Amino acid sequence: MRIISWNVNGLRALHRKGKWNEILDLDPDILCLQEIKAEVKDLPAEVQSPLNFYSYFDSPKEKKGYSGVAMYSKVKTEGVSYDFHGDKEGRLIEAHFKDFILFNVYFPNGGGGPERLKYKLEFYEKFLKFIEKHRNPPTGGKPIIFCGDINTAHKEIDLARPKENETRTGFLPEERVWIDKVVKKGYVDIFRHLNPDRSGAYTYWDMKTFARDRNVGWRIDYFFISPELLSKVKKVEILDDIFGSDHCPISLELN
After folding, report:
1. pLDDT in the model for residue 139
2. Does the annotation mark 149 as catalytic?
3. Looking at residue 36, what is its pLDDT?
4. Is 86 strand, coil or helix?
5. Which candidate in 25, 42, 99, 149 is catalytic?
6. Alpha helices in the chain (DSSP H)
7. Between the CA of residue 21 and those of 5, 18, 107, what are the distances in Å?
8. Which domains does the chain have, with CATH numbers?
9. What would you report as the CA-atom Rg of the chain, rounded to the nearest whole angstrom?
């Protein structure tokens, strides 16, 4: 099974650029998209319901053309939910499969002032408690996979210029410590687990400064998995040869 995650920075724009078929050509079994910036009714028919896929969308309830997530699956789910602590920004799809629960999440950016940073940190804490309840219900839970744009680089190795960004959202100590908490709970950043010393591996680049040309980037898109899934991991990749957004796709393959 291949799961691909990508912050597309506008799904309609991605389609106009001719990149929609390119991502489908990678043959994902499950495709998780973030920051789609569209309501379902505004998407082309082939994007709303691609052949051989079940489609799921969560869009902002108030602010249009902002945020939003989508999930496409060749595998029929056992249930899907969009209910996350009254989230009105269209940031989460929860899908139950036979062997795991998958969360496709577009985590908030902490820029725009203290209130947005506060919102981001509160979202982080609520999300960790949320998945822990799914993982440890009274009757026993399934393994967890969560993927998406976390909007924080965890360690210095995860961005090109850590010293220059120590006081910038996306690399603040209070943001990074949340990822520490996730790891302490046992969730595995599978890319870093398999590539502990690999530098220069990024998933986001600032477009205004043409940072991708120089690979001055950040690794802020992740797959985290429950440890019981480690034996099933076949491959994890950063697909930095795929263009169309200020992020690139990431891929997880499971046996």
Report:
1. 56
2. yes
3. 97
4. coil
5. 149
6. 11-16, 20-24, 45-48, 114-135, 173-184, 190-194, 211-214
7. 15, 7, 26
8. 2-254 (3.60.10.10)
9. 17
List the chain residues with pLDDT less than 70: 137-140
Of 189, 224, 221, whose CA–CA distance to 100 is shortest? 224
Q: How many CA atoms lie within 13 A of 90 on its CB side?
A: 24
Euclidean distance between CA atoms 216 and 45, whole angstroms: 36
- Per-residue pLDDT of 35-86, as tens digits, reads 999 999 999 999 999 999 999 999 988 778 789 999 999 999 999 999 898 8
SS (H, E, C) 104-162: EEECCCCCCCHHHHHHHHHHHHHHHHHHHHHHCCCCCCCCEEEEEECCCCCCHHHECCC
Residue 136: its pLDDT value, please? 74
